[in-house]
Amino acid sequence: MVGRVKTFGPHNKPSRQAAVAKQRAAPLTDKERLLAQGLVQGLSMKAAYQKAGYSAVAVNADRITERPRFVKHLDELRKRQIERLDYSIDNLCARLEHIAEAALAKNQFGPAVQAVMGIGKMMGHLADKTEIELHVLSKPSREPTDIVTLSPEEWQEMFAPKPKLTVIK
After folding, report:
1. How much is the mean pLDDT over the chain?
2. How far apart are the C-alpha atoms of 32 and 28, rounded to whole Å?
């Protein structure tokens, strides 16, 4: 590098890959650990952020919960919690079967049905109404787009029900 002088500017900025590698290598801060613990404990996103000491949910442009090292730590915490509490699908179904039998023994049919329905949901046989999404396509589109090539009048002419004509003699 004889005769070359290193200049400073945007062309010497570290690459995005270097920034991501540096971020992955850095250990979690205490706030990030508290945030992960709050999320694993079942707190809402807002409550977990507040418990960790953050002032707002959207702290940075790159959200903390999307950082690879944070996601990895969160997954490890969840795996440890599952192992500690023994909340496998088989174990949960066995517990619900026990609850259903105990409810039936006391003629409590409502809780028994709910336990059986819980087993069905866990096994994938039932879907909750809130899980089903309904996509309605309105013609013509409410928002103008480049995709729609028909005007509202053309669409109505092609697809609207035609009135029946009666002949009077």
Report:
1. 77
2. 6
